[in-house]
C-alpha cells in the first residue's frame, strides 16, 4: 500500500477521548509491515489504562474496514508543559496542577485526592501536596495513622509518604491534631515553599496541589512563585460558591496561569431509598461560569454518602471495593484534565470573557 494512501487511512480515525487523529498529532511513532501485517507504535500524551482496550479495538476496526490487518502497541509519555513565567521548575516534576476553589466546604480537597488517585489508576506517576497550611486534611483523606511522620534525609529533605500508588506531603504530617499552626503569613508561606522544594519527589508526571481556600497570602505566593502548569476550579452550584470561584479564577488570571476548566461538585443528590435525584443546591451555575470565562465544565459530580464515607475513612474509590460509578467519573475527569493539559487548547486564564449584545 502506498504511503500516501496509508496516511489518509490513519489520519481519518479520531481518538474519541483526545478528539484528534493520532497521525497529525504525532502519536504514531513507528510503523512497518511484517508479512502483510501493519505494526504500529502509538504514544499517547494522557493516561488511558481503563480505555486502552476500547482505543485499540476502535483503531484496529477502522484499519480492518480498509482491509488492513494490524498489531498495535500503546504507551504513555506525558509531556512537560512549558511555563512561560520565568520560574524554575521542579526537576523531577513534569506538570503541577493547582486545585482551587476560592472558598472552603465545596469538596476541593476531596476532588484533589480523587483526581490524583484516578490519574495514578490510569497509569500516570502522581504526587499530591497539601498546601493548606492552617487546615491540612490530606492525612485524614488518605487514611494515614495519627503520629505518622515523613522520613528526613540528610537533615534537610523530606521523603514523601507513599499511599496506594500516590506519594504525598502535608503539614499535617509535621504537627499533631491538637497543635494548630499559629503563624503569620510570611511564616506560613515560607513553610509551604520549603515543603514543596525540599521534598524528594520521584519522577512525576503530575503533582496535584490542594490549594488553601480563598486567595490570601499562601495561595497567592504559591501562584506567583511556583511554576504551576495549570489550575482547576472546584465549585458547587449555588451562587455564593460561584462568586468565590470567580475570585480563584481571577487570581490565576492575574498571575497568567492557564485554567483547565471547572469541576461542579455536589451537583445533585440521589435519594438512597427511592432513587429520586434533585439539584438541592441549584443548577446551571457552573455551566454559566464556564461559558462566561470560555472554559469547560469538566465534570458534574453528585452529593454522595459513599464519597463522604470513603473520605472520612481514608479509602480509595479506585480500589476494587470502591464505588464503581464514582471511580469511573473521576477517571473520566482525570483523562479530561490530562488531555487538556497536553493539548494546545488550554485556555489562558487571562482571557477576558466575550460580551455579546443582542
Describe the model:
By secondary structure, the protein is of the alpha/beta class. It has 2 domains: about 5-75, Fe-S cluster assembly (FSCA) (GMP Synthetase, Chain A, domain 3, 2-Layer Sandwich); about 95-340, P-loop containing nucleotide triphosphate hydrolases (Rossmann fold, 3-Layer(aba) Sandwich), CATH 3.40.50.300. The protein is built from 10 helices and 15 strands. The protein has helices spanning about 5-10, 50-65, 110-120, 140, 185-195, 215-225, 240-255, 285-290, 305-310, 325-340, and strands spanning about 30-35, 35-45, 70-75, 95-100, 125-130, 150-155, 155-160, 160-165, 165-170, 205-210, 230-235, 260-265, 270, 275-280, 295-300. The strands form 4 sheets. The chain has an 8-stranded mixed beta sheet, sandwiched between helices. A 3-stranded mixed beta sheet has the order 1-2-3, covered by helices on one side. Residues about 345-358 have low confidence and may be disordered.
Give a short synopsis of this structure.
By secondary structure, the chain is α/β, with parallel strands linked by helices.
Indicate the percent of residues in helices: 25-40%
Total helical segments: 10
Q: Indicate the low-confidence ranges by residue numbers.
A: 345-358
**Radius of gyration (Å):** 22 Å
How many structural domains in the coordinates? 2
Biggest β-sheet: count, sense, barrel? 8 strands, mixed
Query: Structural class, from secondary structure content?
Result: alpha/beta
The share of residues in extended strands comes to: 15-25%
H/E element order: HEEHEEHEHEEEEHEHEHEEEHEHH
Mean pLDDT: 85
CATH class annotation of the largest domain: Alpha Beta
CATH topology label of the largest domain: Rossmann fold
CATH architecture of the largest domain: 3-Layer(aba) Sandwich
* The CATH H-level homologous superfamily of the largest domain: P-loop containing nucleotide triphosphate hydrolases
Q: Alpha-carbon distance between the termini? A: 54 Å
Amino acid at each position: 500500500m502506498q504511503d500516501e494512501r496509508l496516511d489518509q487511512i490513519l489520519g481519518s480515525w479520531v481518538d474519541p477521548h483526545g478528539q484528534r487523529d493520532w497521525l497529525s498529532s504525532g502519536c504514531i511513532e513507528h510503523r512497518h509491515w511484517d508479512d502483510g501485517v501493519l505494526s504500529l507504535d502509538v504514544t499517547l500524551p494522557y493516561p488511558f489504562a481503563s480505555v486502552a482496550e476500547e482505543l485499540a479495538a476502535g483503531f484496529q476496526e477502522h484499519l480492518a474496514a480498509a482491509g488492513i490487518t494490524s498489531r498495535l502497541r500503546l504507551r504513555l509519555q506525558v509531556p512537560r508543559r512549558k511555563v512561560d513565567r520565568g520560574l524554575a521548575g521542579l526537576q523531577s516534576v513534569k506538570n503541577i496542577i493547582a486545585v482551587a476553589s476560592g472558598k472552603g466546604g465545596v469538596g476541593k480537597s476531596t476532588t484533589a485526592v480523587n483526581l490524583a488517585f484516578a490519574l495514578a489508576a490510569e497509569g500516570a506517576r502522581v504526587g499530591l501536596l497539601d498546601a493548606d497550611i492552617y487546615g491540612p486534611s490530606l492525612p485524614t483523606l488518605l487514611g494515614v495513622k495519627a503520629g505518622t511522620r515523613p522520613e528526613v534525609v540528610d537533615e534537610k529533605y523530606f521523603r514523601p509518604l507513599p499511599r496506594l500508588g500516590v506519594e504525598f506531603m502535608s503539614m499535617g504530617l509535621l504537627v499533631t491534631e491538637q497543635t494548630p499552626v499559629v503563624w503569620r503569613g510570611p511564616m506560613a508561606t515560607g513553610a509551604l515553599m520549603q515543603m514543596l522544594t525540599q521534598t524528594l519527589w520521584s519522577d512525576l508526571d503530575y503533582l496535584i496541589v490542594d490549594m488553601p481556600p480563598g486567595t490570601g497570602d499562601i495561595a497567592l505566593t504559591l501562584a506567583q512563585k511556583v511554576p504551576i502548569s495549570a489550575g482547576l476550579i472546584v465549585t458547587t452550584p449555588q451562587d455564593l460558591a460561584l462568586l468565590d470561584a470567580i475570585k480563584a479564577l481571577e487570581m490565576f488570571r492575574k498571575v497568567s496561569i492557564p485554567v483547565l476548566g471547572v469541576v461542579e461538585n455536589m451537583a445533585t443528590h440521589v435519594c438512597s431509598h427511592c432513587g429520586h435525584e434533585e439539584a438541592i443546591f441549584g443548577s446551571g451555575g457552573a455551566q454559566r461560569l464556564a461559558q462566561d470565562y470560555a472554559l469547560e465544565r469538566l465534570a458534574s459530580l453528585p452529593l454522595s454518602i459513599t464519597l463522604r464515607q470513603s473520605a472520612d475513612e481514608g479509602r480509595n474509590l479506585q480500589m476494587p471495593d470502591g464505588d464503581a460509578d464514582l471511580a469511573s467519573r473521576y477517571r473520566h475527569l482525570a483523562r479530561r484534565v490530562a488531555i487538556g493539559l497536553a493539548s494546545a487548547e488550554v485556555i489562558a486564564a487571562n482571557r477576558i470573557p466575550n460580551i455579546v449584545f443582542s
